[in-house]
Amino acid sequence: MTRYDAEVRTTFTLPHPPETVLAHFASLEVIAAATADVERYQAHEDGRLAFDFKEQNLGVAKFKGQYTARYAVEGDTLTWSTLTEEPHNSGTEGEATFKAVAEGTEVSYREAVFFEVEVPAMVAGMLKPAMVKGLESTVNTYLKKVKGALG
Fold this sequence. Notes:
30% helix; seven-stranded antiparallel beta sheet; globular; Alpha-D-Glucose-1,6-Bisphosphate, Chain A, domain 4; two-stranded antiparallel ribbon; alpha+beta
């Protein structure tokens, strides 16, 4: 198996109060709706969110992602991480903090994502730049959807 990792860090401001923005970003339904290529998901009352993703054709391999992550709010911070005791071949881990500013809420966001896929060894390294770019694009598209859904 070859593992591909990417991390996105960004800070942005939204014209809403911190409580509203934090509640929106922490909503399991919002998270699931903004996540790309979901075949099915299951939200649990304890903050777990399980994903099964649509099969992706990567050219040299096909990939069908799966993971369960736990989301938790403590104070002004939302954290999440993949539960490694659950079946997974991909995952996410990160945090977002929500701070009141004159314009609304400043969000400091960091997310690390990965997936593991069986690819021929001779092309694994050559694929890395494209795979990392794809993972970064997925996170940025997710953020755009979450922000857009807030209005």
